[in-house]
Amino acid sequence: MPNIPCEKAFNDMIDALLYRHLLPEVVWRLQEWMGVGREKKLQEASRAFDEFIYPCVERSKDESNGFSMLASFKKEFQTDSSKFLRDTVLNLMFAGRDTTGATLTWFFWLIACNPSSEEKIRKEINGEDWRRRFGVEESRRLVYLHGALCETLRLYPPVALEHKAPARPDDLPCGKRIEGNARVVISFYSVGRMESVWGKDCLEFKPERWISPSGKIKHEASYKFPAFNAGPRTCLGKEMAFAQMKMVAAAILHRYRIKVVEGHVVSPRDSIILQMKNGLRVSLSKISN
Prior knowledge:
Layout: H1 5-22, H2 25-34, H3 37-60, H4 69-77, H5 82-96, H6 99-113, H7 115-126, H8 136-139, H9 143-155, E1 161-164, E2 170-171, E3 177-178, E4 184-187, H10 188-191, H11 195-198, H12 238-255, E5 256-260, E6 282-286
Antiparallel strand pairs: 1-4, 2-3, 5-6
Helix pairs in contact: 1-3, 2-3, 3-5, 6-9, 6-12, 7-9
């Protein structure tokens, strides 16, 4: 891959932000003030990102009459602020970048480790007519594949943790008192593996848990399954993400069997996005139709 400064800057920013979640604020604030450690890399990455994004924002101002996302934001919020538009682009890139790819990586690993689930998905896929275009509507009929993706998101949520801070003192449902501005870290990774939430088989990969007795997709409350956040702030791109993942997974599993390369070690990478360290090395065997 060629060296793309903006790409490297974005990766450095994501890595540094993980430690802001984990370290006490006074620690990373001191590092920020001193310009050392990961905070130094974050500052350098932020400058590199701005060198790329601000020219794009300025060009968008000349396209106010055209159809573009930034033009829509300018019209909706009635602002021409370059910083506002830069922050908007950064927010959208953080929300959508690598989450789908990371989920698919864990999905293919889990499928390779569970050949019976792989065959069930392939049987479901083969029930579709591949002679015509396979699109969003067709993907909605892949119930078992949907369940397998939900299981992947339960066990390996792309955003594994986040934290909240109440504006004023509050009481949690369990009765614990939380002071104002106290940081409450929520581990979505842990929630997906809790026996009290998912039962004794919580560590097993079981796409069937997402299928109702009638054979339809079984929906869980977002506070139980917070892979796309919860409540009124649920991810806007949820349905698009499922459609993308289903179409990619279906296209690959329809044509190939997947086997993890012998000796390949699978472990998570230190990042705010739960990516697989060093990627997933597999061998593909073409299926004869």
